[in-house]
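Quick one, tokens below:
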């Protein structure tokens, strides 16, 4: 949290977060175009934000994309804004208003796991692992373009739109999100009104990027393609941090979180 506060102390870095909040997943060139700074200054500010966990990055071909990671900001909000009235939280008011007024349309999360890329890939793809920390099993050959069947809470979900988008073993994996069926909703305890909202929204996709980081692996998860005001985004933003924490615990201790 100290690193996050230090990063937020600079108005230029706060402006960069505002720009990413307006449109997530931008390149350095795109960010420079919207800032009254040199390319070198923007690059330095991004490095500070990334070190503080406020920005996470992933590669799309030769392009490095930058995403706002709201986890540290949420931690600050829970620690300070929920315990004191808004007037006492004046130092964060501008950022808070920006986050509230422009809804994010992507979810990005980065974690570091003490494992190998091979074991992490196995944990992301093999049902014997995914069922332990996620409660989900995938039936697919993990080839690009292949269909996927999701098994969760006793319900199997199949649909032509559920496909593997990218599959580069031990480096990058991407697939479309599952279809929201009445059978899935019943198993997941989702009411009919919420299911109707979910079914009206566009199909989203999730991308996992694995990067060796010393004796650890840096795992970046980007879930995007959400509609404005998305119910799916609200649900996934709460689910992903817990799910990835359980994945990390499983790989590092052999036992997932409860």
């Amino acid at each position: 949290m100290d690193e996050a506060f230090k990063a937020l102390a600079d108005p230029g870095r706060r402006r960069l977060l505002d720009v990413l909040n307006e449109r997530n997943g931008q390149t350095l060139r795109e960010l420079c175009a919207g800032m009254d700074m040199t390319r070198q200054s923007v690059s330095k500010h991004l490095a500070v934000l990334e070190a503080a966990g406020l920005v996470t990055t992933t590669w799309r071909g030769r392009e490095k994309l930058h995403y706002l990671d709201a986890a540290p900001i949420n931690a600050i909000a829970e620690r300070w804004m929920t315990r004191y009235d808004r007037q006492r939280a004046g130092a964060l008011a501008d950022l808070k208003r920006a986050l509230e007024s422009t809804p994010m349309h992507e979810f990005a999360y980065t974690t570091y796991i003490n494992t190998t890329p091979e074991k992490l890939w196995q944990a992301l793809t093999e049902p014997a692992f995914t069922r332990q920390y996620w409660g989900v099993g995938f039936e697919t050959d993990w080839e690009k373009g292949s269909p996927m069947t999701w098994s969760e809470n006793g319900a199997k979900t199949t649909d032509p739109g559920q496909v593997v988008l990218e599959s580069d073993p031990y480096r990058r994996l991407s697939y479309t999100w599952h279809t929201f069926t009445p059978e899935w909703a019943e198993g997941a305890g989702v009411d009919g009104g919420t299911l109707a909202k979910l079914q009206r929204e566009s199909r989203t996709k999730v991308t996992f990027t694995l990067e060796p980081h010393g004796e650890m692996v840096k795992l970046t998860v980007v879930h995007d393609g959400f509609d404005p005001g998305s119910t799916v985004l609200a649900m996934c933003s709460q689910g992903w941090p817990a799910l990835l924490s359980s994945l990390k615990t499983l790989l590092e201790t052999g036992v997932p979180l409860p």
